[in-house]
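thought: user wants a sequence for this fold. calling inverse folding tool.
action: design(structure=
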């Protein structure tokens, strides 16, 4: 466990690539909202790392709130079941909301969260995700800010876990087969 790097089969995105892209996204976001206050809504737990870095890459300050839903459990495949575990602390009526996610895989989690938030009469709801996988075309949710489109492989690191492990890795990578054995 001391050498988690040994558990990676390959690195898809380095720390530097991620930080560079987040700075670009932060600049785009700040320009698009130009002076309008927007609320960052992170989706626990995977989004904690991207939230921490994205909010600090913004040229100014933005409030944040969190939701917790569960769709995966501890495995690598989506169960298709979305449960709300923790709701927002904030009333978002009339406010601009920017959902922050680490990854969109099937899109089930975000399409559910987006329509749930839209039912609360916000001024707008947009999505920012670090990673997006190809299967999301099946649910067709418009994602305004995408860090990277990645292949359909199970990835960990930078907030993404396998059985709650590897969230602390600074890169994004795939796991070696021995990890699953
Ligand atoms: C992962 C990931 C996204 C979601 C994407 O979360 O962080 O939130 O799955 O999958 P989908 O597009 O197929 O719905 P997970 O449910 O593993 O919880 P976690 O963030 O606590 O790891
Ligand atoms: Mn998640
Ligand atoms: Mg997970």
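)
observation: tool returned 181 residues.
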């Amino acid at each position: 466990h001391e050498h988690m790097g040994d558990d990676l089969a390959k690195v898809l995105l380095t720390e530097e690539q991620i930080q560079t892209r987040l700075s670009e996204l932060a600049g785009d976001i700040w320009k698009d909202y130009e002076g309008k206050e927007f609320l960052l809504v992170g989706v626990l737990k995977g989004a904690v790392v991207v939230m921490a870095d994205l909010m600090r890459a913004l040229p100014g300050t933005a409030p944040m709130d969190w939701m917790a839903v569960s769709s995966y459990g501890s495995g690598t495949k989506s169960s298709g079941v979305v449960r709300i575990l923790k709701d927002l602390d904030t009333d978002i009526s009339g406010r601009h909301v920017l959902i922050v996610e680490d990854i969109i895989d099937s899109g089930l989690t975000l399409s559910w969260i987006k329509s749930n938030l839209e039912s609360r009469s916000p001024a707008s709801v947009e999505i920012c995700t670090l990673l997006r996988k190809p299967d999301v075309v099946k649910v067709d949710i418009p994602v305004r800010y995408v860090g990277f489109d990645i292949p359909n492989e199970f990835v960990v690191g930078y907030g993404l876990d396998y059985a709650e492990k590897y969230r602390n890795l600074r890169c994004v990578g795939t796991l070696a087969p021995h990890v699953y054995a």
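thought: summarizing for user.
answer: Here is the designed sequence. The pocket of PRP (ligand 1) is lined by residues 43-46, 70-72, 78, 101-110, 161 (CB under 6 Å).
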